[in-house]
Design brief:
The structure holds 2 protein chains of 2 kinds. Chain A is an all-alpha fold. Helices cover 72% and strands 1% of the residues of chain A. The relative contact order of chain A is 0.11. Chain B has a 5-stranded mixed β-sheet. In chain B, strands 9-10-11-8-12 form a 5-stranded mixed β-sheet. In chain B, helix 10 packs across helix 19, helix 11 (249-264) crosses helix 19 (408-425) and helix 14 (343-355) crosses helix 15 (357-367). The termini of chain B are far apart. Classes of the chains: A mainly alpha, B alpha/beta.
Chain lengths: 344, 446
């Protein structure tokens, strides 16, 4: 009796199923297990590169930490282990003592740089807030179409490279051909060597430092403004309306409701602005390189020069550690002052 | 079980990483020229295929010269392949500093001679068989070879005389506009200042628009200050070169002369200095009558300002008094890594490039640099291509090496120049500036 066509089809299907199962099992056997094993392999394949990456990061941090206790220069051979010791001697905390009371040129420059960094950071933060918060409030109150346009315009400098920004401002500050002096001359004023006159100052701060601060603010303010706009949009309109119905003036609404409700954002903006101000480097390096007479020499620039120009890696590492401590302390203070214990 | 395997693997990875980080630090041979090294250098380059890497800083004029010399050497030594790798100046410094401790630097390294005292522990000493110290001193000018010698050992050979003293760019168009004779026939520095005063232009607001004598950039100010001390019979080194002596009558006289020149009105150091209106930029834009700068600026100025129409020349200033004694850096030259597997071939190439008069001439013409070898400097080829070198021939023999400072850049750019500029800008008195230079410069020995 000949098997029917459907029987043959079923038989073939059954054999194919068995065959495929055998292939899968063989593959599974070859690859060493089931789903759990595959998961294990995945974990390993992800963990090992991550560990490698983390180890590198830790190694770099550890290396910087070790270096600050040495008078280390990469140009010197030093001892047999990582070049430490020998002609790169261990100096303990001498680098830090030098920073406080040393009379050497690098100690003087460190103190000058620290002072300039503090001036820069503590001038930039309030000025930035004074510009960005009202601007964000203003933009929040205009029509959607203009809001997008102005937000784009104000954010553009943030996207521009610092070197480009520095070059633009340098041309504007040019003592002979810059348009700022051209305007001053037009009104019969005395032109100023904005970036190169060590004698010129305002409020006890050199004009060159103010000039750099202005350029930095121009580049940076769009970033905070966008963050403030987002925070302002998140405030429930009902709260403001209720206050207005209760007779609050717009100023009171701004100070008593808006400012209070955006405190977490304010904290974030303050911390981030302070962090970036303490670490300012590129715009100053291009515009003044610390001149005139070290009046714009900031810590990051000093660290860079010591590490890569004068090969004082030990000293540069110690300076970096001091900068880290300062930034950490300032951030903790800000967090303490601006923290909120409520949500809305 | 699985977690044990995982932990074991992780531990192995971390240990391997730490071990690899700790290794590869010390060069194969350091500072002690061994007999093996010496004998290797005397042998003719082996015929096996040799690939050498060579690092230089990016400078199109320099690299054009290097490429021709590499091709010429490779043509003579068909088994040798020299790969030139160039870096932007700042990046080159950083690369050297990171590659050297790791032992990953190239076989042949371009080095500024004055840096040798900072890097010599990581450089291969020049084998006697390639060139002895005495031979080198008789072959090259004193200033260029001086920097490559540390504690009586040579670590490289120079390719240029880095002379920052005495040479000025002069703008003929501005001279004629001011009714001055051109070329100027200066006998004394007072003649220079008199001409400079007439070249100055000031706008209606009182701002200087054309500087008569721009000598207030870092190198001109510093090197004319040091030369002035020497020419007045003083020295900025103590007797055994273990400390500086900047607070001396000679130094005071020289700095006072510089301050007086500024007060005479030949230049406004607030508007014309190293960072604002630098000499090359200002001169090739027609805002400087006499611009104090080394010859290296000529090639750069011509390349950066091709549209500059004014006629100009490069001439030498008279000394402040007595002989034109001056100090100079040891300029760019070539060194060899102690980690190179083919030091003999590398040194052979360095010798080929730096000591062969024809090759040295080729490099100096291409790079626009003053030759480090007197014979080359006096050659007719150099005289016809770079006429300003011929004008310097009487001055060059007076050049002395700057001296091995603990950190030359720190002393010159962060100590001497800022205080000189402060004095010229009226921020410090002459006495305050000299006192500060003396104290801070001596602190670099600590």
């Amino acid at each position: 009796m000949r098997p029917s066509l459907s029987f043959c089809k079923n038989l073939l299907a059954e054999r194919w199923r068995h065959g495929m199962l055998r292939i899968f099992r063989k593959r599974e056997k070859r690859s060493g297990g089931g789903l759990a094993a595959a998961k294990g392999r995945f974990v390993l394949s992800v963990t090992i590169p991550l560990l490698l990456y983390e180890s590198l990061g830790i190694f770099v941090l550890a290396w910087a930490f070790i270096l600050m206790f040495y008078n280390y220069s990469s140009g010197r051979l030093g001892g047999p282990i990582l070049g430490l010791g020998g002609s790169n001697p261990f100096v303990g905390i001498q680098n830090f003592i030098q920073m406080i009371k040393g009379t050497s040129v690098q100690a003087n420059l460190f103190r000058t740089s620290l002072k300039n960094t503090l001036i820069f950071a503590f001038a930039v933060l309030p000025l930035n807030l004074v510009i960005t918060l009202p601007l964000a409030y203003l933009l929040e109150s205009i029509g959607e179409r203009f809001k997008v346009l102005y937000r784009t315009i104000y954010f553009m400098p943030v996207l521009t490279s610092s070197v480009g920004v520095a070059l633009i401002w340098m041309s504007m500050y040019d003592p002979q051909g810059g348009w700022i002096n051209a305007i001053i001359r037009f009104f019969g004023g005395q032109p100023v060597a904005w970036l190169s006159d060590p004698r010129a100052g305002f409020l006890g701060i050199s004009v060159a430092m103010w000039a750099v601060i202005l350029a930095y603010l121009w580049q940076d303010y769009g970033y905070n403004m966008v963050i403030f706009i987002a925070a302002l949009q998140a405030i429930p309109q009902g709260l403001k309306d209720a206050a207005l119905i209760d007779g609050a003036t717009p100023w009171k609404v701004f100070t008593k409701i808006t400012i209070q409700l955006i405190r977490p954002t304010l904290l974030f903006v303050c911390v981030m602005t302070m962090l970036s101000s303490f670490q300012v480097f590129d715009i100053i390096q291009v515009m003044t390189n610390g001149d005139p007479g070290n009046r714009t020499q900031v810590l990051m620039l000093d660290i860079y020069k010591n590490a890569f120009r004068y090969q004082r890696l030990g000293w540069a590492a110690a300076e970096s550690f001091v900068l880290f401590l300062i930034v950490m302390v300032v951030t903790l203070i800000q967090m303490r002052l601006l923290r909120t214990e409520w949500e809305y | 079980m699985k977690s044990k395997v995982l932990y074991t693997l992780i531990t192995m990875v971390v240990v391997a990483l730490v071990l690899s980080a700790c290794g590869g630090n010390a060069p194969a041979s350091v500072n002690e020229p061994t007999a093996a090294q010496g004998s290797e250098a005397t042998q003719a380059p082996v015929e096996e295929a040799v690939t050498l890497r060579m690092w230089t800083h990016s400078n199109s004029a320099f690299n054009a010269g290097y490429e021709k010399l590499i091709s010429a050497y490779e043509a003579e030594h068909t088994n040798v392949d020299i790969q030139l790798e160039t870096f932007d100046y700042e990046l080159y410094l950083q690369t050297l500093q990171t590659a050297m401790p790791a032992g990953e630097e190239a076989d042949i390294l371009q080095l500024f001679g004055t840096w040798t005292s900072q890097y010599y522990e990581r450089l291969a000493p020049l084998p006697e068989s390639v060139m002895s110290l005495a031979d080198a001193q008789s072959t090259f000018y004193a200033a260029p070879i001086g920097g490559f010698e540390v504690n009586g050992t040579l670590y490289g050979l120079p390719q240029e005389f880095n002379c920052e003293y005495g040479g000025v760019l002069v703008n003929k168009t501005l001279f004629e506009k001011a009714g001055l004779a051109f070329p100027p026939q200066w006998k004394t520095m007072d003649d220079v200042l008199a001409d400079a005063k007439k070249l100055v232009e000031v706008d209606s607001s009182g701002m200087m628009t054309v500087a008569g004598f721009h000598f207030t950039a870092a190198d001109p100010a510093s090197f004319s200050f040091l030369a002035g001390i020497k020419q007045r019979g003083g020295d900025y080194w103590n007797a055994d070169q273990t400390g500086f002596t900047f607070n001396t009558p000679e130094a005071k006289a020289q700095l006072q002369w510089m301050v007086d020149a500024v007060q005479m009105g030949v230049v406004d150091p607030v508007v014309f200095n190293d960072s604002t209106n630098f000499v090359i930029d200002a001169f090739f834009q027609g805002t400087v009558g006499i611009g104090y700068i080394g010859t290296w600026a000529i090639a750069e100025g011509q390349a950066n300002f091709p549209d500059f129409q004014d006629e100009w020349d490069y001439i030498y200033l008279p000394p402040i008094q007595g002989d034109p004694v001056f100090v100079a850096d040891s300029g760019w030259g070539l060194t060899v890594s102690p980690n190179s597997q083919h030091q003999d071939v590398a040194w052979d190439f360095v010798k080929f490039v730096t000591t062969d008069p024809a090759n040295a001439t080729l490099f100096n013409i291409d790079s626009g640099t003053i030759p480090a070898i007197p014979v080359v400097a006096k050659s007719s080829e150099i005289a016809s291509t770079m006429p300003w070198v011929a004008k310097a021939l009487d001055t060059l023999p007076y050049g002395q090496y700057l001296g091995n400072m603990p950190d030359r850049d720190l002393v010159v750019y962060e100590i001497i120049y800022p205080h000189l500029l402060n004095a010229m800008q009226g921020v410090e008195t002459v006495d305050e500036a000299l006192q500060a230079i003396d104290t801070e410069a001596n602190s670099t020995f600590e």
